[in-house]
What does this fold into?
Amino acid sequence: MFTKTKNTPAPAALTLEPPRAPTPAPAPRPKPASMIAQGVTIKGDVVGDGELHLDCVVLGDIRVGKLILGPNSRVEGSVTAQVIEIHGNVLGSITAQAVRLYGTAKVDGDITHEQLAMESGAEFQGRSLKFQRQAPTPAAAPAPVPPMPQSAPAPVTQG
It folds into this structure.
Protein backbone atom coordinates (compact mmCIF):
# COMPACT_ATOMS: atom_id res chain seq x y z
CA MET A 1 0.00 0.00 0.00
CA PHE A 2 2.51 2.56 1.00
CA THR A 3 5.72 2.41 -0.80
CA LYS A 4 8.65 4.54 -0.12
CA THR A 5 10.12 6.19 -3.16
CA LYS A 6 13.48 7.76 -3.28
CA ASN A 7 13.37 11.37 -4.29
CA THR A 8 16.34 11.92 -6.44
CA PRO A 9 17.07 15.47 -7.37
CA ALA A 10 16.68 16.34 -10.97
CA PRO A 11 19.95 16.84 -12.77
CA ALA A 12 21.10 20.42 -12.46
CA ALA A 13 20.34 22.46 -15.48
CA LEU A 14 23.35 23.74 -17.29
CA THR A 15 23.56 27.46 -17.11
CA LEU A 16 25.79 29.30 -19.44
CA GLU A 17 27.33 32.43 -18.05
CA PRO A 18 28.11 35.22 -20.43
CA PRO A 19 31.80 35.57 -21.05
CA ARG A 20 33.38 37.82 -18.48
CA ALA A 21 35.18 40.92 -19.56
CA PRO A 22 38.83 40.84 -18.65
CA THR A 23 39.43 42.50 -15.33
CA PRO A 24 41.04 45.88 -15.76
CA ALA A 25 44.59 46.23 -14.61
CA PRO A 26 44.78 47.79 -11.18
CA ALA A 27 45.53 51.48 -11.16
CA PRO A 28 49.21 52.20 -10.65
CA ARG A 29 49.98 52.84 -7.02
CA PRO A 30 51.29 56.31 -6.29
CA LYS A 31 54.97 56.47 -5.57
CA PRO A 32 55.71 56.83 -1.88
CA ALA A 33 57.21 60.11 -0.81
CA SER A 34 60.95 60.26 -0.23
CA MET A 35 61.90 61.65 3.16
CA ILE A 36 65.17 63.03 4.46
CA ALA A 37 65.23 63.88 8.14
CA GLN A 38 66.95 66.48 10.26
CA GLY A 39 70.71 66.23 10.71
CA VAL A 40 71.52 65.65 7.02
CA THR A 41 73.21 68.16 4.71
CA ILE A 42 73.00 67.72 0.95
CA LYS A 43 75.55 69.58 -1.17
CA GLY A 44 74.39 69.54 -4.78
CA ASP A 45 71.21 69.49 -6.79
CA VAL A 46 68.22 67.30 -5.99
CA VAL A 47 66.18 66.18 -9.02
CA GLY A 48 63.21 63.84 -9.28
CA ASP A 49 59.59 63.61 -10.36
CA GLY A 50 57.95 62.32 -7.18
CA GLU A 51 57.10 63.78 -3.81
CA LEU A 52 59.92 64.82 -1.48
CA HIS A 53 59.73 65.69 2.22
CA LEU A 54 62.84 67.43 3.52
CA ASP A 55 63.68 68.46 7.06
CA CYS A 56 67.38 68.90 6.36
CA VAL A 57 69.82 71.37 4.79
CA VAL A 58 70.16 71.50 1.00
CA LEU A 59 72.94 73.58 -0.55
CA GLY A 60 71.85 73.41 -4.17
CA ASP A 61 68.84 73.53 -6.44
CA ILE A 62 65.77 71.32 -6.04
CA ARG A 63 63.51 70.21 -8.92
CA VAL A 64 60.81 67.67 -7.99
CA GLY A 65 57.09 66.98 -8.51
CA LYS A 66 55.91 67.99 -5.02
CA LEU A 67 58.05 69.39 -2.23
CA ILE A 68 57.32 69.71 1.46
CA LEU A 69 59.95 71.51 3.52
CA GLY A 70 59.69 70.76 7.23
CA PRO A 71 60.24 73.27 10.04
CA ASN A 72 63.93 72.34 10.40
CA SER A 73 64.67 72.56 6.67
CA ARG A 74 66.94 75.12 5.05
CA VAL A 75 67.44 75.41 1.30
CA GLU A 76 70.06 77.65 -0.30
CA GLY A 77 69.26 77.49 -4.00
CA SER A 78 66.34 77.63 -6.39
CA VAL A 79 63.32 75.43 -5.83
CA THR A 80 61.03 74.22 -8.63
CA ALA A 81 58.01 71.90 -8.27
CA GLN A 82 54.33 71.62 -9.14
CA VAL A 83 53.33 72.12 -5.48
CA ILE A 84 55.51 73.47 -2.67
CA GLU A 85 54.66 73.62 1.03
CA ILE A 86 57.18 75.48 3.17
CA HIS A 87 57.50 75.29 6.95
CA GLY A 88 61.25 76.05 7.02
CA ASN A 89 63.72 78.45 5.37
CA VAL A 90 64.47 79.09 1.70
CA LEU A 91 67.17 81.42 0.41
CA GLY A 92 66.60 81.50 -3.35
CA SER A 93 63.91 81.66 -5.99
CA ILE A 94 60.80 79.48 -5.91
CA THR A 95 58.79 78.43 -8.95
CA ALA A 96 55.59 76.37 -8.65
CA GLN A 97 51.96 76.29 -9.64
CA ALA A 98 50.89 76.34 -5.99
CA VAL A 99 53.00 77.65 -3.10
CA ARG A 100 51.94 77.62 0.54
CA LEU A 101 53.96 79.37 3.25
CA TYR A 102 53.10 78.16 6.73
CA GLY A 103 53.48 80.28 9.88
CA THR A 104 57.07 79.10 10.50
CA ALA A 105 58.24 79.72 6.89
CA LYS A 106 60.97 82.21 6.03
CA VAL A 107 61.60 82.91 2.36
CA ASP A 108 64.21 85.30 0.96
CA GLY A 109 63.77 85.28 -2.81
CA ASP A 110 61.24 85.69 -5.58
CA ILE A 111 58.23 83.38 -5.82
CA THR A 112 56.80 82.68 -9.28
CA HIS A 113 53.41 80.99 -8.95
CA GLU A 114 49.82 80.55 -10.07
CA GLN A 115 48.54 80.31 -6.50
CA LEU A 116 50.21 81.67 -3.38
CA ALA A 117 48.92 81.22 0.17
CA MET A 118 50.57 82.57 3.30
CA GLU A 119 49.67 81.88 6.90
CA SER A 120 50.00 84.50 9.58
CA GLY A 121 53.58 84.59 10.86
CA ALA A 122 55.22 83.56 7.58
CA GLU A 123 58.10 85.82 6.50
CA PHE A 124 58.63 86.61 2.84
CA GLN A 125 61.24 88.97 1.43
CA GLY A 126 61.15 89.18 -2.36
CA ARG A 127 58.76 89.55 -5.26
CA SER A 128 55.59 87.60 -5.89
CA LEU A 129 55.39 87.00 -9.63
CA LYS A 130 52.25 85.51 -11.16
CA PHE A 131 52.79 83.05 -14.02
CA GLN A 132 52.15 84.76 -17.32
CA ARG A 133 50.15 82.29 -19.33
CA GLN A 134 50.82 82.73 -22.99
CA ALA A 135 47.71 83.71 -24.89
CA PRO A 136 46.76 81.09 -27.44
CA THR A 137 48.05 82.08 -30.82
CA PRO A 138 45.15 82.91 -33.11
CA ALA A 139 44.76 80.93 -36.30
CA ALA A 140 46.53 82.51 -39.23
CA ALA A 141 44.33 85.39 -40.29
CA PRO A 142 43.48 85.49 -43.97
CA ALA A 143 45.52 87.97 -45.94
CA PRO A 144 43.70 91.29 -46.23
CA VAL A 145 42.06 91.88 -49.55
CA PRO A 146 43.71 94.84 -51.31
CA PRO A 147 41.29 97.69 -52.01
CA MET A 148 39.87 97.89 -55.48
CA PRO A 149 41.42 100.69 -57.51
CA GLN A 150 38.96 103.44 -57.98
CA SER A 151 38.30 104.32 -61.57
CA ALA A 152 36.31 107.11 -63.05
CA PRO A 153 32.62 106.30 -63.27
CA ALA A 154 31.50 105.02 -66.65
CA PRO A 155 29.67 107.63 -68.72
CA VAL A 156 25.95 107.12 -68.84
CA THR A 157 24.57 107.01 -72.35
CA GLN A 158 20.98 107.68 -73.13
CA GLY A 159 19.52 106.01 -76.00
DSSP finds no helices and 18 strands in the chain.
